[in-house]
Amino acid sequence: MADTPKITFDSVRSFFPHTDNMTYFNAASVGPFSSLVRGAITEHVDMRVAAEKDDSHIAFGTADELRKIFGKLIGARHREIGLGQNTTFGLNLAAYGLPLKPGDEVLLSDIEFPAAVYTFKAAAKARGLKIKYVKSTDRRFDVDAFEKAISKKSRVLVLSYVQFFNGYKNDLKTIGEICKKHRMFFVVDGIQGMGTEPLNVRSLGIDIFASGCQKWMLSPQGCGFFYVADELREKIIPPFMSWVGADWHLKFTDLFYYDKPYFDSARRFEMGYYAVLNIIGMRAAVRMFQDLGIANIRKHDHALIDRLAEYIRNHPYYRITCNMTAGHRSSIFTFTCKDLVDLHKELLRRRIILVRREGSIRVSVHLYNNDTDVDRLIQALEDFGRNH
Fold first, then answer.
1. Could you tell me the pLDDT band of residue 42, with boundaries at 50, 70 and 90?
2. Which residue ranges make up each domain of the chain?
3. Given this model, what pLDDT does residue 249 score?
4. Where are the beta strands (DSSP E) in 259-327?
5. What is the CATH number of domain 58-291?
6. pLDDT of 295-345, one tens digit each?
7. pLDDT by residue (tens digit) across 215-233?
8. Which of helix, strand or coil describes residue 26?
């Protein structure tokens, strides 16, 4: 695997076997595995089956490599990154660990993905916090409404980087500045932007960033990462800790020490031993993002979406339902029509994989897609529109 030449946009499609007989536009739900991921996992399984050596330390090396990689990908320091099972892991760290007191307000968008809502509702009940919803406008987070909603008790804003149902990318810089002005913690659910939308968490003023990697990062389900700003780490008091959050210096021959310090990094918040197959698969997957560059992936995705959007704009049967302005568009494109359910069934019949969300067809364009995929979708839409 290590000898594979640098991945380019000309070669990346060859690492995805599904492209031979399937058109896949559904990374916003779950990303397909590449042959790199399959190979890495299979290689490790074979080694475990052979059981010829103690390979327990492989997980620690892989985890440390991933912290460094994710740090570079989001503009964070290595010590600010920890590994978790999913986006909700990082959201729980924020919900239960942030230094809040009874009566403090947590602001949420009224069109937020349920992961943040249910996590913070439970924390609010347990900690005596108050949930306040920010009213959206035209199916998007309204920055002006957010500012108006802030009160003296407002302490946290929790927000998605990219909205799951229509791909609206929030202006994190402006929102982060507002949070800083009002001394509010800024918590971001990054899963629908991570891997396709470049960002620098430190320059954006984000305090906690959480992302699963099973979607756009094309990794196994059950793995992800989180970011905790250096300035915040010592203030976090989570309801859970683990023995691997203590600094053993990887010397496990004598475990009867109960005075080891917790890591002076976000690693202290990780929970127990790693899901090794998951992080090995994740390590193989992130190599594509290192080689291609997230800014280049965005450019690639947007060019394909432009091709599709041009067709939709000029067809009387279909209507674009996502925001296509430069600052708010993402790799999620949505459109609608009168017979949406029938259209979705027809696209699936043609082995074009995408989903319906909130009254629209959601098209998730990613690094393995090309013009041929878009043309197949356009042809299917043309045929369907002609008969309806």
1. very high
2. 12-34+292-386, 58-291
3. 77
4. 319-320
5. 3.40.640.10
6. 999 999 999 999 999 999 999 999 999 999 999 999 999 999 999 999 999
7. 999 999 999 999 999 999 9
8. strand
Dihedral in degrees, nearest 10, Cα atoms 63, 67, 72, 77: -150
State pTM to two decimals: 0.95
Yes or no: say if 327 and 169 are a contact pair by the CB < 8 Å rule: yes
DSSP 213: S
Asked, colleague to colleague, whether 12-34+292-386 and 58-291 share their fold, the answer is no
SS3 content of the chain, % helix, strand, coil (to 5): 40, 15, 45
CATH architecture of 12-34+292-386: Alpha-Beta Complex (3.90)
Rg of the chain in Å (alpha carbons)? 22
d(CA 112, CA 169): 13
Do the Cβ atoms of 337 and 319 come closer than 8 Å?
yes
How many beta carbons lie within 10 A of that of residue 155, not counting itself?
23
- How many helices (H) and strands (E) would you count in the chain? 11, 13
Q: Pick from 131, 107, 123, 241: which is nearest to 187 by CA?
A: 107
139-186 per-position pLDDT tens digit: 999 999 999 999 999 999 999 999 999 999 999 999 999 999 999 999
Strand ordering across the sheet containing 319-320: 319-320, 332-336, 360-364, 355-357
CA-nearest of 133, 134, 126, 132 to 101 is 126
Q: Are strands 224-228 and 81-84 parallel, antiparallel or unpaired?
A: antiparallel
Asked whether the predicted pLDDT for residue 244 surpasses 70, the reply is yes
